[in-house]
Automatic annotation (TrEMBL):
TM ranges: 250-268, 280-303, 315-332, 338-356, 377-399, 411-431, 515-541, 547-569, 578-598, 677-698
Subcellular location: Membrane
Cellular component terms (Gene Ontology): membrane
Record key words, sorted: Membrane, Transmembrane, Transmembrane helix
Bilayer topology term: Multi-pass membrane protein
Designated name of the protein: Major Facilitator Superfamily with SPX (SYG1/Pho81/XPR1) domain-containing protein
Length: 699
């Protein structure tokens, strides 16, 4: 069987040799481009255009061959369909077995075709990486996005697998009819749970899953969460991820994200009244709200480091600290102590486990589910942001139990303390600590690599043929030895940085600008949300319920806006175009918010707030998507990862914004609005200028 598999593989390589992507030719072109640019013989625009044209030609060759092979498979399946109908009428067991073997042979050939596609897809990815590394561009992102989203793109035809999916469906349906349901004929479409996939079908589906790549709403939300996505994983990596994955543990991480966002925003509508009831100024609400962000600056670091060793323990610690913090927040009213109030909010910030939530999704969720989990992370955050203020408007009551007061100021603390208590019990009972990662080299030896296709069909799983094939080709091409070794090293998991200084050194100008943009949008949003209760009470005499409803409505715009951007706008425009347009819209919203001359009206405030908030939400999604592309792969793992850096930038923005509100309060409530908007205006203009300077480096 080993000899047969090796002979089969070699014959496939010889037969299909002319249809593989010409990696050697493209690599030489990259080197020639570099020489031409050094001497000034060509400009960057020509290089990008010419290299795109060559890649289009290579991919067209692959796709046309792929369609030809699919047509041959479809013709064989059509012939088998006729035999299928005849044999089922005769109910001949021997012929049914022969027909099953015939379908398996078609599946075997389809699996070979999928391996062919995977080899070309990985070769394409490697040459794109080489181009980016040699010239410092983000050409990969530009090329894949423009080609994958165009309706006539050959690249999309490869990665969407429309024709392959139909062939897989025909094979799996007919094998299911012939396998376990003779005389019953349960359809896989009616009751898929009753069908037991044949090993060859399982292998085909596994190969298709490794190749799957789409740009849709889930991918946009996943990038919004800034959980950095890896390249196509190896089977060993997927096995480890499958072993570490536990649905209930993932759900508990998402619930933690939701509750923390509720905890953050539930006090916003009543923070000014609470401050007044304790004898402080209304603008002290900035300190009350911001103290949680101050503590989060430090908690993000130690939670990120802690998640290197455990997930359960930091989540337990987070829940306990939040339980204590919310209890102190509620008790501050009866103790008549602003200090206790602030300590309670500091404890809440120290319990911020969002770094753990992100890390769990990145490390413990299989690649095929990671985008959905990332989208769930963003959705949970958005839902919590909307539910926090909405819950606050329900607490319009005032009563005492013994010496404890329950009113609109203290109930947010009591309700969240109870919520974290229930969550802590649920966490202790249902969370499963994933096993530590074990690095294994499960690649088959060279002597057995030839039988991997056949062995996969017989045993129900696939082996990575490409790595062995490339190793063999590498030995045959001595002039490529150095470069190929360099490419192989790029494919390995990057070594994470070990200090904040090392992380900072990896930040390119483009990354720094995008982090500044993230700082700007978080600053503008925090100014809008944190001072909403004070501004609306001063200008419009809104009640707590009115402020809560207004903030809840703003929060409810997050998901619809992301759906529109992720499904439509991101497919119509480049992300850098959406980024710049969103920054300009934030600027317009800030300008419209100023109170100059005419009386300040509700339509002006609500309209400007809506423009600012929605534009900032669009900007956040696009900004984090670009960050995930331009940031070094070394920042995708370890304590000082890209998610931590973006979290720190956003948290620092919130701290400064809340401090700005409190300091501006000393000038009087009448000047609060314009005084807090001036820094927002300056920072927004600065971010637009910085974006324009780095615009060409954003792909």
């Amino acid at each position: 069987m080993v000899a047969f598999g090796k002979k089969l593989k070699e014959s496939q390589i010889q037969e299909w040799q002319g249809y593989y992507i010409n990696y050697k030719f493209l690599k030489k072109k990259v080197n020639r481009y570099a020489q031409q640019l050094e001497v000034g013989a060509q400009d960057h625009r020509y290089v990008l255009k010419d290299f795109s044209r060559m890649l289009d030609s290579q991919i067209e060759k692959i796709v046309l061959f792929l369609l030809e092979q699919q047509g041959q498979l479809a013709s064989r399946l059509s012939d088998l369909r006729e035999q299928h109908d005849e044999i089922l009428q005769q109910t001949d067991g021997a012929k049914i077995s022969e027909l099953q073997e015939a379908y398996r042979r078609v599946g075997h050939d389809l699996l070979r075709l999928l391996f062919f596609v995977e080899m070309n897809a990985t070769g394409l990815r490697k040459i794109l990486k080489k181009f980016d590394k040699r010239f410092g561009y983000r050409f990969t992102n530009y090329y894949v996005k423009t080609r994958a989203n165009h309706p006539y793109s050959q690249l999309r035809q490869v990665f969407k697998h429309v024709g392959i999916g139909a062939v897989v469906g025909a094979i799996s349906r007919n094998l299911a009819d012939l396998q376990d349901h003779q005389g019953n004929y349960v359809s896989i479409y009616d009751q898929p749970a009753l069908s037991h996939p044949d090993p060859v079908v399982h292998s085909i589906k596994a190969a298709v899953n490794r190749l799957s790549n789409s740009t849709n709403f889930l991918e946009f939300l996943g990038k919004h969460a800034f959980i950095m996505q890896d390249d196509l994983p190896t089977p060993s990596e997927e096995d480890v991820a499958e072993e570490r994955y536990h649905f209930m543990s993932l759900l508990l991480n998402l619930v933690n994200t939701f509750l923390y966002m509720v905890n953050t925003y539930i006090i916003v509508p009543t923070a000014d009244d609470y401050s007044l009831s304790l004898g402080a100024a209304a603008t002290v609400c900035g300190v009350v709200i911001g103290s949680m962000a101050v503590a989060q600056v430090f908690s993000s670091v130690y939670f990120s480091a802690w998640s290197n060793r455990s997930y359960l323990r930091p989540l337990i610690f987070s829940s306990v600290v939040l339980l204590i913090g919310n209890t102190l927040y509620a008790l501050a009213y009866d103790l008549n102590s602003i200090a206790v109030l602030l300590v309670g909010r500091l404890f809440c910030g120290l319990g911020s486990a969002r770094a753990v939530n992100r890390r769990y999704i990145s490390d413990c969720v299989p690649h095929k589910l990671r985008m959905q989990a990332s989208a769930g992370f963003v959705s949970a955050s958005a839902l919590g942001m909307a539910c926090g203020p909405a819950l606050a408007c329900l607490f319009q009551t005032d009563f005492k139990v013994y010496k404890l007061t329950f009113n609109e100021d203290t109930l947010p603390g009591w309700v969240m303390a109870l919520s974290w208590l229930f969550y802590l019990l649920w966490l202790w009972i249902c969370f499963r600590e994933p096993p530590q990662k074990i690095k294994e080299n499960i690649l088959p030896q060279e002597a057995h690599s030839g039988s991997s296709v056949n062995y996969a069909v017989e045993n129900g799983y696939t082996q990575p043929l490409l790595l062995n094939m490339e190793a063999k080709q590498q030995g045959q091409n001595e002039d490529e030895e150095y470069d190929d070794g360099e490419e192989d090293s790029c494919e390995k998991a990057p070594k994470p940085v070990t200090s904040i200084v090392s992380a900072y050194r990896l930040l390119t100008p483009s990354v720094k600008v995008q982090l500044f943009v993230y700082f700007m949008l978080k600053y503008a949003m925090e100014i809008l949300l944190a001072e909403a209760s004070v501004i609306t009470a001063y200008y419009f005499i809104w009640s707590t319920s009115s402020v809560a409803i207004f903030l809840a409505c703003l929060g409810l715009t997050v998901l619809p806006v992301n759906i529109v951007v992720g499904t439509y706008i991101s497919n119509m425009f480049e992300e850098r175009q959406v980024l710049l347009a969103s920054e300009i819209m934030v600027l317009i919203g800030i300008l419209l918010s100023f109170h100059i001359g005419i009386p300040y009206s509700v339509p002006q405030y609500v309209g400007s707030a809506l423009i600012t908030f929605v534009s900032a939400e669009v900007l956040e999604g696009v900004n984090l998507s670009l960050l995930s592309r331009v940031m070094s792969s070394r920042l995708s793992r370890g304590t000082y990862n890209g998610g931590l850096l973006s979290t720190e930038a956003g948290t620092l923005a919130r701290v400064i914004a809340d401090g700005t509100i409190t300091l501006s309060g000393y000038l009087g409530v009448s000047r609060l609005l314009n005084t807090t908007l001036v820094p927002s205006l300056f920072i927004c203009i600065s971010s637009i200028i910085a974006t324009c300077f780095t615009y060409n480096s954003l792909y």
